[in-house]
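[audit] Reproducing an earlier prediction to check determinism. Same input, same settings, fresh worker. If the tokens differ from the archived copy the diff job will pick it up downstream; this log only records the rerun itself.
[audit] input (481 residues):
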Amino acid sequence: MTRARPAWIIWAGLLLSFTSPRAAFPHSISGADWRVHFNLPSRSGFAAGPWENSIRDALLGRINALQTNHVAHLATYTFSGNSAGTGCAGPMLLAISNALARGARIHFVADRGINTTSNYWPDISLASLAALPANPLQLSVDASAFGVMHNKLGVFDFGGDEKWVFITSWNFTGGASIYQWNIALELRGAPLFAAYTNETAEFAAGRFHADPAKSHAHDGIAFTLRDAWRSGFVRFAPYPDSSTGGNNAQTDITNLIAAAQTEIFFALNKLTRPLIRDALIAAADRGVMVFGCMPQSDWADPSDDSYTTYAYLNDPGNYAGTNRVHFLPAYSRADYSTLDAGESDLVHTKYLVIDPWGANPVVIHGSANWTDAGLASTSLNDENIVVVRHGDIARFFLAQFKRMTGAWPDESAAWTRIARTGSAARVDFWVPQTNTHYLETAPGPDQPWEPIGAFFSNFVGGISIVTNRADGRAVFRLRRE
């Protein structure tokens, strides 16, 4: 299985090359107004593996940064784990307790299945923090008779422009780090922050998914990120309309898939929607390369939720030609020692990436499984989904897909281009690997190369280097050791 990726790129009359040996991916990366984190599961409950707790620690870092009059809203479907090393609920309760003592205001939203009285940390529970005589935790618990509060998120106001939303597939448990692949996206911006704050206000008022009075006013709000090619938007379940083509996330997703040009990558815990299945097949029929990863625990047995969809997508008879959706198994351990053997919910991510190397890259990500309850229902679940139109974010989600599946290990995940700032030429490049890189130049591609600009060791992210030269050299390459 191979995919084409140009080794030489022509841009503004200049030539750029990239060499591509095996590289190590990082677990986290940041942009001007975004951050992405993914964990590396070890399946060992005794000691945390390298970067196993990367999502947990990123969220704890946000809570630990809260000071007087800062505001946070946290929401989770499950909550457990009392170990400081491999747990979640215990360390989080301690962090929340300390933040409340510093004067931060914190709201915690829990599904009805969470034990709010359990002391996951000595003498600290959600209930005890909510009973504090001064600056108590605001605790909202879903008491709906059906459906679930399925969000996993954090909303943070650190004052001024520092308003962040932490959107993840990761439940607040130790097992979500140890035994599952998960990913988190942090986004900064007032409109998105306001939309999520309005959603948590509904929970504070006791209006969850089963309440027809729950407001949809903030659903679909647009937001803009720096360097995004277009504004993104957010959806909150339940939706106003569950019909085919109606006002719901399923319609948004099928429309986005229909616009895909070259590649689609998805990593989903569940996929049961026939409309999305058919949209993926239609994309393959028009030549789009489609790659997916789903946990064996959800498709191997006829009783599994995704069994029918998975079997349908794997049947060549359902395609017009030879191109089809290609499924890749996840590794059950980040050290690549074992592949998915049916471990429960091994792939817990809920994202789809469209054209990460194209002009219009898209990421769809959130708490929702791709089921009726997650994408279309008007009453079943509380969920959140963001659509982000940003190349760097799309490429780092692709990096997670590659790390989880071990696919294309020798292929570069960097991108490069030649651009201009006024009369000055510059080289822009972005790398999601922690290797050493050199930017080099030469009079021509067959002439000796020499370093230009800076030398980068263990750098991850985007760099822009002015490359105007008095000798008129116009050939550049990014070389990785």
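[audit] rerun output stored. Observation attached for the diff report: Residues 190-204 form the longest helix (15 residues).
[audit] end
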